[in-house]
Design a protein that fits this description.
The complex is a heterodimer. By secondary structure, chain A is of the alpha+beta class. Chain A is built from 12 helices and 12 strands. Chain A folds into 2 domains: 1-46, no CATH class; 52-282, Sulfite Oxidase, Chain A, domain 2 (Alpha-Beta Complex), CATH 3.90.420. Chain B is built from 9 helices and no strands. The chains are: A alpha+beta, B mainly alpha.
């Protein structure tokens, strides 16, 4: 294939902002960008404010992590002594080679890279976070999923001794989440080991969490101990808590409201009192990469 | 002594307002400032509803009538904080962008019930003066029973906006139910003894 420079095929304003594009969509490989950028220029260009990194102090003090309590500052206040070593992750289920890996083995086997993703919470706020992580598909390929592996179930740690929130039946503990196999294999889906170039803080889901940038934040399970490939769609903790409000897919979608509140707009964390809400974008702005996963699906029904 | 009580309670009731004003001007609102103001003013509205509803049970329990002297003022503070709460939502959060606000009011039950509670407060504020009490006679009492509905609406408003069933919003509903239940009991006793 003939090599083409970005500048030859990209409108200038987009070319000038290409770093921002790359940052926003978390792509470090130029080739992926090249193959997609015509689509980008056809859609509305991401606005600058989307790309501004949220400050470290906000990312690490404003968390939903009900294992440590339902208040936003509970996780940072109550997770300081949470033990993340020793830590084993079991990858099993419908696979040919089930694996049990320590977090140290994971860190050496799968080098982390920086991925700047926008995180949209189902509550109607968003952050932009420079994660350190690696594609989930790398670990899944290691265990060779069988043809029966249609879904991936994520199980977080159960430890009410250390996690005070698990002593209350707010959710069905341990926290469970799930993805369809093609969502799990998608290159944007990562396992996270750090942020802002540092080891992942306890309140953000250390030592290993998921990040699926086109879905609401709660889909990205924290402190994962088991990744299980399964044949049937797993029931997540949130689906169990309120099946009419929290669906399996939970893709960011401004046209499908939460039954009790609107999802059309969001507040940007860390912005001042006078900054306005911003419109929420389909698939949190990652539509060009992921919309094809859902072609033909009624996203109102499969919310 | 008692003549200083009412002004003291007035000043105390303004403390939450002073706190939030301080936080706004000194940038102490944290990562989501607008939500912080909304929640703060909303929660203080509920607290003042509970305080207002506590006055007549306190009168019965302590056999002191002075509690009733504070009821009107506390009730007006309910309206004060509820209005700040509403203005934060309409002005600061949605920039007087009426279309999404209107959509929320008609489609989202927590917004609807919250807005309804604020609307229902208006006739109570208008008829709060001593003159109106005299003018409306027995109807005044009937009209002001609306506060029971407002209280239930207010606590449901909080429960329905939470992601799942949380402890804190439920506590307000429980307190309000207890305060209303106390009235029923007292009333029956009055009837029996009367």
């Amino acid at each position: 294939m003939k090599k083409i420079k970005y500048s030859e095929i990209t409108p200038e304003n987009i070319y000038k902002n290409r770093r921002n594009f790359i940052k926003k969509f978390g792509l470090t490989a130029g080739s992926i960008f090249l193959s997609q950028n015509l689509n980008f220029s056809a859609n509305a260009a991401p606005k600058k404010e989307d790309l501004k990194l949220t400050e470290y102090r906000y990312i690490t003090t404003y968390n939903n992590y009900y294992e440590f309590g339902t208040g936003k500052s509970d996780p940072v206040e109550r997770s300081e002594k949470f033990k993340t070593t020793p830590w084993d992750v079991i990858i099993d289920g419908e696979v040919e080679n089930p694996l049990k890996l320590s977090i140290e083995e994971i860190n050496t086997m799968f080098p982390s890279e920086e991925r700047i993703y926008k995180l949209r919470c189902v509550e109607g706020w968003s952050m932009v976070i420079p994660w350190l992580g690696f594609p989930l598909n790398k670990i899944l390929n290691k265990v060779s999923p069988t043809s029966k592996a249609k879904f991936v179930k994520f199980v977080s740690i159960l430890d009410p001794e250390q996690m005070i929130g698990q002593r209350f039946p707010i959710l069905d503990w341990p926290y469970k989440e799930g993805l369809r196999i093609d969502e799990a294999m998608h290159d944007l889906t990562i396992l996270v080991t750090g942020l802002y170039g540092k080891k992942l803080p306890n309140q953000n889901g250390s030592p290993l969490r998921l990040m699926v940038p086109w879905k609401y934040g709660f889909k990205s399970a924290k402190a994962i101990v088991n990744i299980k490939l399964v044949e049937k769609m797993p029931t997540s903790s949130w689906m169990k808590a309120s099946p009419k409000e929290y669906g399996f897919y939970s893709n960011v979608n401004p046209t499908v409201d939460h039954p009790r509140w609107s999802q059309a707009t969001e507040r940007v964390i860390g912005e001042g009192i006078i900054s306005p809400r911003i419109p929420t974008t389909m698939f949190n702005g990652y539509g060009d990469e992921v919309a094809s996963l859902y072609s033909g699906m009624d996203l109102k029904k499969y919310f | 002594m008692t003549k200083y009580l009412k002004p003291s309670i007035f000043v105390l009731s303004l403390v939450p307002f002073l706190i939030i004003t301080y936080k706004i001007f000194f940038n102490k609102l944290g990562p989501e400032p607008v939500k912080e103001i909304t929640h703060f003013t909303g929660e203080w509205t509920l607290i003042f509803i509970c305080l207002t509803l506590s006055m007549s049970p306190l009168k019965k329990l302590t056999k002191l009538s002075l509690w009733i002297n504070f009821r009107r003022m506390l009730g007006l503070f309910v309206f004060f904080y509820a209005t700040l709460h509403l203005l934060t939502y309409v002005g600061l959060d949605y920039r007087f962008n009426w279309q999404p606000i209107f959509d929320d009011v008609v489609k989202k039950k927590y917004v609807f019930i919250g807005f309804a509670a604020w609307i229902l407060l208006i006739p109570l504020v208008i008829t709060s003066s001593k003159k109106m009490v005299r003018l409306l006679k027995n109807n005044w009492k009937k009209l002001h029973r609306l506060v029971y509905v407002i209280a239930i609406f207010g606590s449901l408003h909080y429960i329905w906006l939470s992601k799942t069933i949380f402890f804190k919003p439920l506590i307000y509903l429980i307190i309000i139910i207890v305060l209303l239940a106390l009235r029923i009991k007292i009333k029956n006793r009055d009837v029996n003894y009367g």
